[in-house]
Amino acid sequence: MEVGAALETLNDEEFDDHVARLRLELLTRPNATAALVDAFAAIQEAAYRTIGQRPYPSQLFGAIAVYHGEIAEMQTGEGKTLTAVLPAAAAALAGIPVHVLTVNDYLAARDAENLGPVYRRLGLSVGLVVQDSSREQRRAAYACDVVYCSNKEIAFDYMRDSLVFGHSDHALLRHAARLKCDETMDRALTLRGLHFAIVDEADSVLLDEARTPLVISGTNQRNRQETKIYAQALEIADAMEEEVHFHVRTLTRQLEMTALGETRTDDLAASLGPAWAGRMRRRELVRSALVARHLLNQDAHYLVRDDKIIIIDDNTGRPMPDRNWEQGLHQLVEIKEGVTPTATWDPVARMTLQRFFRMYHHIGGMTGTAREVAGELWGTYDLVARKIPTNRASRLEYLGAIVADSITEKWWRVKERAVHLQAQGRPVLIGTNTVGASEQLSEVLTAAGCVHRVLNARQDRQEADIIAEAGAQGAVTIATNMAGRGTDIILADTVRDAGGLHIILTELHESARLDRQFFGRAGRQGDPGTYEIIASLEDEILVRNVPRIAARLAAMAESDYRARVAIAVMRFVQWRMGRLHTRTRADLLRMDEYEATSLAFAGRN
Ligand SMILES: Nc1ncnc2c1ncn2[C@@H]1O[C@H](COP(=O)(O)OP(=O)(O)OP(=O)(O)O)[C@@H](O)[C@H]1O
């Protein structure tokens, strides 16, 4: 009899005995194929008995890839969340601590809760670490067999642990502390090593998020003078003219001062006292002030909430209350927005996500979008991306693109579509790039009497609630990137017959992978679904990056042809941005490795 079929006949007690025997076998032979087959069969059975879902053959293929340290490329909605349980539980049954890493707290909490019963049925413990978890809660969670956590949380916990060892954060030292049963040291640490990581949305975590190094701040360097200096820097910045004194490079999010700009800085700062005497420092200060003024916008890059600046994560659209910009930039934005300036902090530890993940003994992962980054995943992490076939054929249909002349006209078109589809009883999910845009569109829909909900960094606390309703008959939901990766919208039965969820993307993201992830909220698990793009010639991606082409397109009459050309240009900008980001990550990793080796003998601070 087939292994799985035999397990179905067991009663609960017999199944428990079977799992206990299996655990012993795995502890001694974790890599034996027969033992792994038995383990997967038992986990499948446990999933069926607890949450009523039996992993499909496609999920088994994915699970085998992940277990063997590969990235399983599975289309959106194919069930990567359940797929991860198979390698995670199999490794945990074999005694290996497992970290299942997601892109955000909402998904970590959702998955730990939904899948907890499967692990517990197998006698395994499950922990959860989110931003609000205390140190004690973290330590308890990391002691579990399987931990669900967002990538940033665990990387920061690792860095904090490293600080306990001063600069000498060598793995061997940590083992030495354990061997000596150094109780104090052990109590100071939260993690118990980096063994097996299963990375969900692997391209986002391992690449997109890895563009900015993680920094831990230490001692408070508050200086009364500081606020005054930052305010002066903003005043000087306001006396500068774009294209004359500085250039903004939107593609790379960089700002360069021209020679004229530097001289102007020197002139204006001449009478401001000794704090402005250093030439390098004063130019850097003014450059930062220009960045605060021209590159960082309210409701796009940050929110102002309760007299605080709250950064919005570029990749996930989520508010990050614990994050700060470095080197005075945060304070400059605070002064610009008129909120009480906070103190500046000195960085005491810095690490890239690349270096962090390369320290794991074993990594596997899943994503819906690995194709175009397969080379980099291999180059940086030695990870192979393996394409897994879908369980059922996809019924997701692309309806084409409309590119309106202006943003106002774009909102009008989106409203027309939403009202039309709502009347047909179909749910509609509309994607915007910023909090500001989601609110503008919301006003247009409200004025037209179209009932809808908004999910953005301001409404993050109602996330689960909004998502639970987004698949209902006639539901219209406007969402930023927060409803991108991982979000699972369950359709009401009547909606399936009406054609499923319809997605409207109103602005292309900075990467085509993000667009595909957003479209992937529809047509999941073989459900029907449609998607379209309604963009405009005034969108940032065109106006900021290729202004001359945008102007030429604006001179053409609106047609399908113009829309196709405009979308092709936007895709070209995305491709160029992707290449730049790859280069940034390579440079960052090189620097990080250089610093790690050159500072190896620096000793404690
Ligand atoms: N074997 C199964 N049997 C029944 N339902 C399943 C099975 N596997 C997954 N599902 C359901 O399919 C839906 C999509 O799963 P999930 O959200 O894990 O997809 P995903 O691949 O992670 O998508 P994304 O790429 O968007 O993150 C969920 O509602 C989940 O409960």
TrEMBL record:
Cross-referenced InterPro entries: Helicase_ATP-bd, Helicase_C-like, P-loop_NTPase, SecA, SecA_CS, SecA_DEAD, SecA_motor_DEAD, SecA_preprotein_X-link_dom
Boundaries of every Helicase ATP-binding domain copy: 61-238
Subcellular location: Cell membrane; Cytoplasm
E.C. designation(s): 7.4.2.8
Pfam families: P-loop_SecA (PF21090), SecA_DEAD (PF07517), SecA_PP_bind (PF01043)
GO CC term, one of those recorded: plasma membrane
Domain SecA family profile: 1-565
Binding-site positions, ATP: Q59, G77, E78, G79, K80, T81, D488
Molecular function per GO: ATP binding; protein-exporting ATPase activity
Residue ranges of domain Helicase C-terminal in the record: 406-567
Reaction catalysed by this enzyme: ATP + H2O + cellular proteinSide 1 = ADP + phosphate + cellular proteinSide 2
A biological process term (GO) from this entry: protein transport by the Sec complex
Major place of residence: membrane
Membrane topology: Peripheral membrane protein
Domain of life: Bacteria
Subunit text: Monomer and homodimer. Part of the essential Sec protein translocation apparatus which comprises SecA, SecYEG and auxiliary proteins SecDF-YajC and YidC.
Function summary: Part of the Sec protein translocase complex. Interacts with the SecYEG preprotein conducting channel. Has a central role in coupling the hydrolysis of ATP to the transfer of proteins into and across the cell membrane, serving both as a receptor for the preprotein-SecB complex and as an ATP-driven molecular motor driving the stepwise translocation of polypeptide chains across the membrane.
Name of the protein described by the UniProt record: Protein translocase subunit SecA
Natural source organism: Sphingorhabdus rigui
Gene from which this protein is expressed: secA
